[in-house]
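Milestone 3.1: sequence recovery, worked example.
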């Protein structure tokens, strides 16, 4: 029997998504500003939903959960990226890389299923308004959110455990951060099981949830078209189009990255796409919900007014 004498690399080198070393300070400032805007925007949404009674509805409950997941997802990647930019030591330990993989994968999977739950909420509100209050109760929403979070954690745990069984003996260069495709590209051992698990996750979590969203909005659009009067149609559609924008932004970036087979991953591709779904898209979500939703804007105004009065 052939003995395995491979030495696992103690750390990975994160080359980063930005070139031109002389502009690292500028890139750090840009990422820091976007990161702070994201944290502040998401925190305001959560505060608005918790403190403003008119927002105590299932739709806004799921929006607050989405904001929290976005914070976790982005915080798993950006602080280390900013540290590497400012310190210059662009490395991450093996255990740190696995922790980043687990956190990012669990939050990404949770967000995929949460977007489907939000589509179901809109389907019930538009297509079955008489039963909406009795079905989408507080207990049901909390249970649904807890099950979605547990599903995301279980999915990430499986991917992390099968990743730990692989040999990483070098090279150890990662283009941006620790996620499944670049890590599989660095493995010396067979990644067949990992690719199978990633394919299954893509089918059920990405494509399956996307199809459920499409079907839900197919029924929603059909119900809206049956509404008499343009004002009623506009009011019904206004509760849905914000969610559609968020779904489009998220799926168009993350599906582009994960739809490719991991064995065919290239270290030089998809750097900027990773920036989109880890930073730009989550940063845009608060703007989408706050600038286009009257109830959220009203809640923001009351919170900011209260903070000003309290400061005097």
């Amino acid at each position: 029997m052939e003995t395995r004498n491979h030495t696992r690399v103690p750390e990975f080198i994160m080359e980063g998504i930005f070139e031109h070393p002389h502009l690292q300070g500028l890139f750090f400032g840009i990422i820091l500003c976007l990161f702070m805007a994201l944290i502040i925007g998401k925190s305001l949404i959560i505060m608005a939903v918790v403190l403003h009674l008119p927002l105590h509805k299932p739709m806004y409950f799921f929006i607050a959960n989405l904001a929290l997941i976005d914070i976790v997802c982005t915080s798993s990647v950006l602080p280390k990226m900013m540290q590497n930019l400012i310190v210059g030591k662009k490395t991450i330990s093996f255990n740190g890389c696995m922790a980043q993989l687990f956190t990012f994968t669990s939050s990404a999977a949770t967000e995929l299923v949460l977007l489907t739950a939000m589509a179901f909420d809109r389907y019930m509100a538009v297509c079955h308004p008489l039963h909406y209050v009795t079905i989408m109760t507080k207990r049901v929403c909390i249970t649904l959110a807890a099950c979605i979070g547990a599903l995301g954690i279980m999915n990430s745990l499986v991917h992390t455990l099968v990743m730990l069984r692989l040999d990483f003996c070098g090279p150890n260069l990662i283009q941006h951060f620790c996620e499944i495709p670049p890590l599989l590209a660095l493995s010396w051992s067979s990644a067949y099981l990992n690719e199978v698990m990633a394919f299954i996750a893509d089918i059920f979590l990405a494509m399956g949830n996307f199809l459920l969203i499409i079907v839900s909005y197919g029924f929603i659009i059909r119900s809206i078209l049956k509404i008499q009067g343009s004002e009623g149609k506009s009011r019904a559609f206004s509760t849905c189009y914000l969610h559609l924008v968020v779904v489009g932004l998220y799926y168009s970036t993350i599906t582009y990255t994960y739809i490719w087979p991991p064995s065919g991953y290239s270290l030089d591709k998809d750097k900027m796409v990773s920036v989109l779904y880890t930073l730009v898209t989550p940063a845009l979500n608060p703007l989408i919900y706050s600038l286009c939703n009257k109830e959220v804007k009203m809640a923001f105004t009351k919170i900011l007014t209260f903070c000003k009065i309290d400061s005097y």
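Residues 25-311 form a domain with the Rhopdopsin 7-helix transmembrane proteins fold (CATH 1.20.1070.10). Confidence is low (pLDDT under 50) at residues 1-5, 261-268.
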